[in-house]
Design goal:
By secondary structure, the chain is an alpha+beta fold. It has four domains: 2-52; 74-309, DNA ligase/mRNA capping enzyme (D-amino Acid Aminotransferase, Chain A, domain 1); 315-427, OB fold (Dihydrolipoamide Acetyltransferase, E2P), CATH 2.40.50.140; 428-573, 5' to 3' exonuclease, C-terminal subdomain (DNA polymerase, domain 1, Orthogonal Bundle). The protein has 20 helices and 20 strands. A five-stranded mixed beta sheet has the order 2-11-10-3-9, with helices on both faces. It has a five-stranded antiparallel beta sheet with strand order 14-13-12-15-16. Strands 5-4-7-8 form a four-stranded antiparallel beta sheet. It starts with a helix and ends with a helix. The model is unreliable at 64-68 (pLDDT under 50). 2-(butylsulfanyl)adenosine is lined by residues 82-84, 117, 119-120, 124, 140, 177, 221-222, 283, 302, 305, 307.
Length: 576
């Protein structure tokens, strides 16, 4: 009982999240999580439903996406626009086939012929042609009714307005994917999270002139309603689409048997980053239309098709440059600037290389083709270099021996505990002499776990620093609000809000105050230990006294390293 109650709670939570994410995505064209995570969430909900017989009107097994935006007129789709079930591995594919074999009552080893098509990560659209003339274009909407976005779709060069071939059906809905190529996305990437959001946002513009400015593409792959059906196979239909003047994917392929599906999947996954558009898997469709008809649909997906997704966490890309970032404690972190790749719906253009040793160990160079991984919310990292793709003129990367920000000497400190030198190289300048360190210290000072000043994000710190409004952390308490209100993007309301949150931050707890100072070796845990011992802010300032500071050695968890850091802080403070 308790177990099922817990599962019910989990189920409700997942439905709530699903609703939130789909609402954001379908109504505001914003992805809060990656597609992979979204698909997994759907899968988890459906598996809980199966196991515990749960049901909910908002469940993805009942609804297709969210209701269409209010801005466009709605029309029903003559044939529902369906979704696809997902497969993540070979086992899922075997299960998919088993179900079909049972449904059709075929022998166990029956080998199906499939049409394998790349799953382009865009926005689907349905185009109605009557007597060869494009009369209406609908978005998918909720699958049953879509938004009339004809005027916007007509701005896409790949979408023919008239089709004159004799064998083109008199009345047909041609369906396919609208998307933006990566090179075109590069030019507008500051305004959108990823290419798919850009395509979606652009299609839903009220003003078609704005849509026409974003170079959208269209690839056709299926039909909805059709007044005549003389074609027998999906692969033949794709050939016809091309003949009628539609673009189709050059990666479409006729394939028999799961083994061959898997090797095709592997091959395409590897060269995915060479394509100029994002694909997030391969769609397998039973090729024979008669079989498709016999198989029919489950609630909102065909029984005859499945999307085999790519790994959500790994991809291949090229290192364009290696930047050295300087952190709050002076640590130099090498970051690879990579050719943008979509990993699980998130566009990745940076990957951490951790430290100098990591670069040496993996011999990572500018221009290398590398395997990168993005797991959860952590910064993507380079797994390995593909040496077979290394250019002949490539050169070993030389890690700078001076700080790229202030030019000071850098060192690898000796760790007395491990009796080894640190892997991390650090800038040796103290206090606020190094520009990058100072900015990072201020960012830390105002951050969520420190002073938690609402509306004082990293970009604002950077901007205020560049125009000389702040140079030291305590400058934030003497801001020139008159000047700020004249800056771009600042209105009376936002200045007032900033003033209020700075005022509020003056009343923080002692542990948060200590943590906010960004003292080396004093993280949140040590700040708590110190504040429990010191009790009041006044006592913290008494630590300037050499005798008093040594009392800290009585705290479990605080040792010479932390005490020396605090001493350094008070020494530096004398200069400011
Ligand atoms: S077939 C009845 N073919 O994937 C089958 N869909 O998850 C549904 N998609 O809404 C459509 N490439 O936006 C099909 N070659 C392809 C596709 C494809 C991308 C998208 C489409 C659809 C979604 C289903």
């Amino acid at each position: 009982m308790a177990k099922s109650l817990k599962a019910k709670q989990e189920y409700k939570n997942k439905i709530r999240l699903y609703k939130k994410y789909s609402q954001k995505y379908f109504e505001d064209s914003v992805s809060i999580i990656s597609d992979y995570e979204f698909d997994l969430l759907k899968k988890e909900i459906i598996s809980l439903e199966k196991k515990f017989n749960f049901d909910d009107p908002e469940s993805p097994s009942r609804t297709l996406g969210f209701k269409p935006s209010k801005n466009f007129e709605k029309f029903p789709h003559r044939v529902k626009m369906l979704s696809l079930a997902n497969a993540f591995d070979e086992r899922d594919l075997i299960n998919f086939e088993k179900k079909i074999i049972n449904f059709l009552n075929l022998t166990k080893n029956f080998e199906f012929e499939y049409c394998a098509e790349p799953k382009i990560d865009g926005i689907s659209a349905s185009l109605t042609y009557k007597y060869g003339k494009l009369i209406r274009g609908l978005s998918r909407g909720n699958g049953e009714e879509g938004e009339d976005i004809t005027i916007n779709l007509k701005t896409i060069a790949d979408i023919p307005h008239y089709i004159e071939q004799k064998d083109f059906p008199d009345d047909i809905d041609i369906r396919g994917e609208v998307f933006i190529q990566n090179n075109d996305f590069e030019k507008i990437k500051d305004s959108f999270a990823n290419p798919r959001n850009a395509a979606s946002g652009s299609l839903r513009q009220k003003d078609p002139k704005k849509t026409s400015k974003i170079p959208l593409k269209f690839v056709a792959y299926t039909f909805g309603f059709s007044s005549d059906q003389t074609i027998d196979k999906q692969t033949d239909f794709l050939i016809k689409l091309k003949k009628w003047g539609f673009k189709t994917s050059e990666l479409n392929k006729k394939i028999t048997g799961i083994k061959n599906l898997l090797s095709n999947h592997q091959k395409i996954e590897k060269k995915r980053f060479e394509l100029n558009y994002d694909i997030d898997g391969i769609v397998y469709k039973i090729n024979d239309f008669d079989l498709q008809k016999r198989l029919g649909f489950v609630t909102n997906a065909p029984r005859w098709a499945i999307a085999h997704k790519f790994s959500a966490s790994k991809s291949v890309t090229e290192i364009l440059n290696i930047d050295i970032q300087v952190g709050r404690t002076g640590a130099l972190t090498p970051v690879a600037k990579v050719k943008s790749v979509n990993i699980g719906g998130v566009l990745v253009s940076n990957a951490t290389l951790h430290n100098e040793e990591e670069i040496l160990r993996k011999d990572i160079r500018i221009g290398d083709t590398v395997n990168i991984e993005r797991a959860g919310d952590v910064i993507p990292h380079v797994i390995s270099v593909d040496l077979s793709k290394r250019k002949k003129d490539s050169k070993k990367f030389i890690f700078p021996s001076n700080c790229p920000s202030c030019g000071s000497k850098t060192i690898k400190e000796f760790n007395s505990l491990t009796k080894k030198h640190d892997a991390v190289r650090r800038c040796t300048s103290e206090g606020f002499k190094c520009e990058k360190i100072s900015i990072e210290k201020i960012k830390h000072f105002v951050s969520k776990d420190a002073l938690n000043i609402d509306g004082f994000g990293k970009k604002i710190v950077q901007n205020f620093w560049e125009i000389g409004l702040i140079k030291l952390p305590h400058d934030i308490f003497n801001l020139n609000f008159e000047r700020i209100s004249k800056l771009d993007g600042w209105g009376r309301l936002s200045v007032d809000n900033l003033k209020k949150s700075i005022q509020k931050s003056k009343n923080i707890s002692l542990d948060k105050f200590i943590f906010s100072l960004g003292i080396r070796h004093i993280g949140q845990e040590n700040a708590k230990l110190l504040s429990e011992f010191l009790k009041k802010k006044e006592n913290f300032f008494r630590l300037k006294n050499q005798n008093y500071i040594h009392e800290l050695i009585n705290i479990d968890g605080i040792g010479d390293t932390q005490i020396n850091s605090l001493k350094m802080l008070f020494l530096i403070c004398q200069n400011y």
